[in-house]
Amino acid sequence: MYNRRFMAEKTQPKVKVGDKIPDFTVYDQQGNEITNRSLLGNKTILFFYPKDNTPTCTKVACNIRDNYEVFTQNGYKVYGVSKDSVKSHVGFIAKNHFPFSLLSDPNLSAMNAFGFYGPKKFMGREVIGTYRTTVVFDEKGIITHIIDKVASADHTAQLRNLIGI
After folding, report:
1. Which residues, in sequence order, are CB contacts of 117 under 8 Å at separation 6+?
2. Residue of 7, 46, 57, 143 marked catalytic
């Protein structure tokens, strides 16, 4: 059982700006294995979100979709990460026409490695879940930016202001 006092506080992420991205293994919507090593060589945006097809998560992903070209024109790869299944991601992508891959992390490999899963408040209740967080890293896998207060309707503006594009 979890200590209620501990659950009421959001734990600090394990990663910070300047860290190398941690080891993890996840799968894209086609079932291809994606690891921290396979993402090296590109500037990358990873946005972690709790669940496919929920209002806030859809709003964040659609905002990034609507501005996707801004990121690719500036050399960024973009990926969404949740603990949803590959099958769920296939449907979420088809429904919303996402041009980027969604990574399935049902075993919490990436979320735990980054420190983005644990106790949090949701609708006034204490729950265990995903911290809505975005990480930006360079071609060498060094974290350059972390956004832990994601503006769901205008996350692109947050990212653009932060990374200067």
Report:
1. 83, 108, 111, 128, 129, 130, 131
2. 57
Structure token digits, residue 90? 């296939």
- CA distances to 44, 90, 103 from 87, rounded to whole Å, are 24, 5, 11
Domain ranges of the chain: 4-163
Which structure tokens are listed for 118? 């644990």
- R_g of the chain computed on alpha carbons: 15
> Is 62 labeled as catalytic in the residue annotation?
no
3-state secondary structure of 138: coil
Which of 3.30.420.280, 3.40.50.620, 3.40.50.720, 3.40.30.10 would CATH assign to domain 4-163? 3.40.30.10
Compute the distance between CA of residue 31 and CA of residue 104 in angstroms, rounded to an integer: 9
pLDDT tens digits for 5-40? 333 344 455 899 999 999 999 999 999 999 999 999
Report the greatest alpha carbon distance in the chain.
48
Residue with tokens 């006092």, as numbered in its chain: 5
- Report the predicted TM-score, pTM, of the whole model to 2 decimal places: 0.89
C-alpha to C-alpha distance for 101 and 163, rounded to whole angstroms: 21
Count of helix runs (H) and strand runs (E) in the chain: 6, 9
